[in-house]
Amino acid sequence: MRTSESNAKANRSKIRREYRRLVVDLSVLHKKDAGTGIQRVVGNVWSELRLLERQSLEIVAVAAGPDNLFRYIPSDFFESRGSGEYSRIAGPYEPQAGDLFFGLDFSPVMLPRCYRTVKRWKNLGIPVCVVVYDLLPWSNPEWFTWRGARNFRRWLSFVRSHVDHAFCISAAVADELRKALPHRGLRRLYRQDRSIGIDLMRLGTDFQEFSGRATQPAVLAGLEGRPIILMVGTVEPRKGYDIALEIAEKTCSGEHGPVLVIVGKPGWKTGELQRRLTSHLLVGKSLFWISDADDAQLAWLYENSAVFLSTTRGEGFGLPLAEAMSYGLQVVAPDIPVFREFDGTGIAFYTAGQVDEASELLRSTLVPVSTPLKEGRQTVSWRDVAANLVNQVMLRDDRR
């Protein structure tokens, strides 16, 4: 019996070496591209993954459906801007030896529902990997809706029970994951202790493809010569836009003074804050909230702003901050652990939540818009991110 099991294991290892499929879960992006930070990462990484040419490696996309099974996404789906209807998915995914399942998309509802399917894969020797973007709904559920926090707990329990390897987008997230996995609140959902491999997945900052067609937002016409303080992120509790309003009141006064531009879609639990952002006395003068900016407009803002401001209470990485730095923008940001992982050059830290301190830093770092900001910009390409990710996934599987 032992000899037979050993032979089967050796055959699986041989197949893994000779031919593999990286099966990439895009369940959420397939239904709708919400334009969030996570969806931007998923879209950028997938766009590069599908272009990678690796010997004996096929990369395919799948999506989970209402029957809790996964089906292939047609190769032309995203190019044709598909409707997201489940009927447009191709045939069912049939697992085979040598496959690796990679949860690139953050799917807190659908993936836990598919646990029986995933369990069957694992019985076939298929490793399961996921990307962990942050653990904020676990550590700070008050920043999220009740349903969002609940779904995240279920997803984290799924990770604890079924995932072999997690790729975290920052060291801070990796540390949080190590602390969360043994938590008592998850133990009722798994039967035995399991070790999960944890690695870092650095994100890209390459936004240059939009620079050639950068477009000035119409609402900013006529503000030439006034320095722009830029903020980027969904209007939701943890982003601290309530603090940003206080900073604007202290910093953005006068006809020729700086203007605060917030780029972000309306989020949850911020109804009163959103009303303030649209009715404040500074609106249309020194305060602008652009809730529907496209990438070309965002590129223009990165190119023409004087300083990037963050008032966030917590992040998994801070993609807008990284993009701003790649454009050579000076950054004023709260002193939180994840931001200390960036090269400190170009970042002025203030004590989180301290309005006066942040305002003083802004005043001391504001520069004329005409000052060259692009010189020496450094970016991390999404192509490199995808290639490094595949290398890490394959290396982990070879060690099994």
Protein model, in words:
This protein is an alpha/beta fold. It contains 15 helices and 13 strands. It has helices at 2-18, 27-31, 37-49, 110-113, 115-123, 136-139, 146-162, 171-180, 184-187, 241-251, 271-279, 295-304, 319-326, 355-365, 382-398; strands at residues 20-25, 57-64, 70-72, 99-103, 128-132, 165-168, 197-200, 228-232, 259-263, 287-290, 307-309, 330-334, 347-350. The strands form 2 sheets. A 7-stranded mixed beta sheet has the order 3-2-1-4-5-6-7, sandwiched between helices. Strands 10-9-8-11-12-13 form a 6-stranded parallel beta sheet, sandwiched between helices. α3 crosses α15 and α10 packs across α14 (355-365). The radius of gyration is 23 Å and the shape is elongated. It starts with a helix and ends with a helix.
Order of helices and strands: HEHHEEEHHEHHEHHEEHEHEHEHEEHH
Shape: elongated
Major sheet: size, sense and barrel closure? 7 strands, mixed
Q: Proportion of β residues?
A: 15-25%
The end-to-end span amounts to 21 Å
Q: How do you describe this structure in short?
A:
The chain is an alpha/beta fold.
